[in-house]
Amino acid sequence: MPMDQKKNRGHVINHSIRVPQIRVIGNDGGHLGIMDTRSALSLAQEKELDLVMINDKSEPPVCRIIDYGKFKYDLEKQERKNKKNQDKTSVKELKMRYTIEDHDYKVRVNQAERFLKSGDKVKVTIKFRGRESQHSHLAENLLNQMAKDLQEFAELQQAPKKEGSNMIMLLSPKSAVVKTSTTPTNPTTSTPTPITKPKLVETEPSEATV
């Protein structure tokens, strides 16, 4: 049955279409050509369907004969699906120091891999204390190494960037990884590259002698 004009979700349908001529697409997707709007509306009513304008920018505007109730239901269903997918995506944060030991680094990489396979984004934060900010290049190197170790599962959404007393990197899961992770397989974990950290010598400023 044709839809009530008050429930059209902003679409121009049926008697709300005021232009004299329109280009008509049938319910099966076939092109019916240019028709008088009254004739097209009568054709839609004969089929107990609706005449819906889908493109008002063309000349003449394009309308389609469809079941608007079903069209609206499918539209709302897709919106709910999109919202559900958005709700599933969360950001997991991993924190570490740029002086992290190799074993602990491997633990962080494996944690990040699990999060990425679950469809979550991963925010990696390195926090500086005191004069450690002088060695921000070491933190950047470490984050770049982690991105490289996770390149099979992640895309670099935000490169390492210093923000205040932190350096932050954001990784997004590759869509192919998320899809395949839903299929049961023998669990495997990547082997992170051993990290090498130069020894840092902290020196206190000497007092001037008089």
Automatic annotation (TrEMBL):
Keywords: Cytoplasm, Initiation factor, Protein biosynthesis
GO molecular function: ribosome binding; translation initiation factor activity
Domain of life of the native organism: Bacteria
Domain Translation initiation factor 3 C-terminal: 90-174
Gene Ontology annotations of biological process type: ribosome disassembly
InterPro entries noted in UniProt: T_IF-3_C_sf (IPR036788), T_IF-3_N_sf (IPR036787), Translation_initiation_fac3_CS (IPR019813), Translation_initiation_fac_3 (IPR001288), Translation_initiation_fac_3_C (IPR019815), Translation_initiation_fac_3_N (IPR019814)
Cytoplasm found in the keyword field: yes
Compartments it resides in: Cytoplasm
Bias (Low complexity) ranges: 179-198
Region (Disordered): 178-210
A UniProt-annotated Pfam family: IF3_N
Main location: cytoplasm
GO CC terms: cytosol; membrane
Boundaries of every Translation initiation factor 3 N-terminal domain copy: 13-81
Family: Belongs to the IF-3 family.
Annotated function: IF-3 binds to the 30S ribosomal subunit and shifts the equilibrium between 70S ribosomes and their 50S and 30S subunits in favor of the free subunits, thus enhancing the availability of 30S subunits on which protein synthesis initiation begins.
Oligomeric form and interacting partners: Monomer.
Name of the protein in its database record: Translation initiation factor IF-3
Provenance organism: [Phormidium ambiguum] IAM M-71
Taxonomic classification: Bacteria, Bacillati, Cyanobacteriota, Cyanophyceae, Oscillatoriophycideae
